[in-house]
Specification:
By secondary structure, the protein is α/β, with parallel strands linked by helices. The chain has 2 domains: 7-50 and 210-273 and 364-419, FAD/NAD(P)-binding domain, CATH 3.50.50.60; 63-106 and 139-201 and 276-360, 2-Layer Sandwich (D-Amino Acid Oxidase, Chain A, domain 2), CATH 3.30.9.10. It contains 12 helices and 22 strands. The chain has helices at 19-30, 70-79, 92-105, 108-135, 154-161, 164-169, 179-185, 208-221, 263-267, 330-337, 339-342, 387-402, and strands spanning 7-9, 12-15, 35-39, 56-57, 85-87, 142-143, 147-151, 174-178, 195-199, 203-205, 225-228, 231-236, 241-245, 249-252, 255-257, 277-286, 296-298, 303-308, 311-320, 352-360, 367-370, 377-381. Strands 5, 7, 8, 9, 16, 17, 18, 19 and 20 form a 9-stranded mixed β-sheet that branches. A 6-stranded mixed β-sheet has the order 11-3-2-15-22-21, with helices on one face. The longest helix has 28 residues, at 108-135. It is globular and about 65 Å long. The mean pLDDT is 95. The structure holds flavin-adenine dinucleotide.
Amino acid sequence: MGTSTPVHTHQHVIIGAGIIGLMTAWHLQQAGKKVLLIDRVLPGDRNQTSYGNAGVLSFASFRPIAEPGAWQQGLQGLLKPNSALKIRWRYLPTLSPWLWAFLKESRRDKADANASAILALNNHSKTCWQSARQTLQLSDLVEATGWIKLFESDAAFQAQLKQTPLLDSAGLGWQALTGHEVRDLEPEIGPAIQHGFWQKDSLFLRQPHHVIQRLAEVIRERGGEFRQENVQALQKTQEGLTIHMQHQSLAATQVSLCAGAFSQRLLATVGDNVPLETERGYHIMMPGCDTLTRPIMHVEKQIVVSPMLEGLRMTTGEELAGLDAPADYRMIQRKHKLLTALLPKLDRTIKTQWLGFRPSLPDSKPIIGRHPRIQGLTMAFGHGHLGMTQSAATGELMSQIILGMDTAIDTEPFSFARFGNTRQ
Ligand SMILES: Cc1cc2nc3c(=O)[nH]c(=O)nc-3n(C[C@H](O)[C@H](O)[C@H](O)COP(=O)(O)OP(=O)(O)OC[C@H]3O[C@@H](n4cnc5c(N)ncnc54)[C@H](O)[C@@H]3O)c2cc1C
């Protein structure tokens, strides 16, 4: 650890240059601030979760995972051979506090309040992404295709339709499709699909790491600095914070913690313990980027397939096994076999496989806000399944919070304090 006298910086320091850190940096720059991003990898690197996701900006996905009945459904899922949900049983003792907090969030009143907050964040992010798309000239990489949820059974489709009044009230566009209408839009989809639900307002990141790299380029052009270092510890000081890295220490008055699923490891060094877990997710890349024109999700089989620039990407998986367990590709390989029915003519050759770490809090809401005890520390992490979707609004809110401005939406539901006393 760099224990030498810390170098001082007057820049806004952002730890983590995934989509959340980059959006925060870009918004701070727009407000005229100088930024320094520290990350152990380069923006767009394969080791970022922002690299390998499905690329869907799904503003209409607002229900939290913790819902009444989620607990029973989860247990049933664990017993099914083809389920996307997996727990490594050796990890269960470490996972238990998170599971307990998740259970408490599953009450009807809590789940509904969480859903409203997520909807407000998503809805604002829709506006922020539309303007980012224009300002950053991203129309070749951020496409207005929407995405289609696919159903084999009437029951699953009817459950989806129950959400439409809320989508209508939020002004989010959708269209119910018959199996034939689905195949008119996407002719490659097999006959087993009986219904579709087209979420028309969703945007699609045609290759998420290209978006990340473009954003990083813009930040650099505007004078933003990037430093490739592993942050080992944070230390509270009278003036702000000292960031200890492998080769150096840096003192800063304004620090944003945007380290995704690894954020708790850094908070532990200042004595905090937030219930941040990771829902590990996998992807497989195949040939055939022109098989589809937009992302699709087979709801019952829990598979998303996205036509990326570099090929067709299938994503799936919610594996609760922490940050250190090695990848286990068996579950996604079993799911991969199910593609024969969904996309019968597809060349299913596996080109590459990938594991990523969704940063997940028990109520499916991120933390966006100031640290209650450490002056100058602001945090944005825990975006779970929706980090790409919510990133544009998160960056804007972070910049407003840091600069002491009124925020565009109420950030109280995203406060650190909602987890009570987080001291270790
Ligand atoms: C399979 C899968 C599919 C998904 N699909 C979607 C989707 O379709 N739509 C959607 O909205 N979301 C999706 N997500 C979720 C989304 O990818 C994440 O929520 C999002 O990428 C989180 O971004 P982040 O910037 O917080 O984290 P990251 O991208 O992980 O960035 C965090 C950065 O912090 C750095 N860092 C961490 N610790 C340190 C340290 N100590 N020192 C220096 N640097 C450090 C890391 O190197 C990393 O670059 C998906 C996720 C998965 C796994």
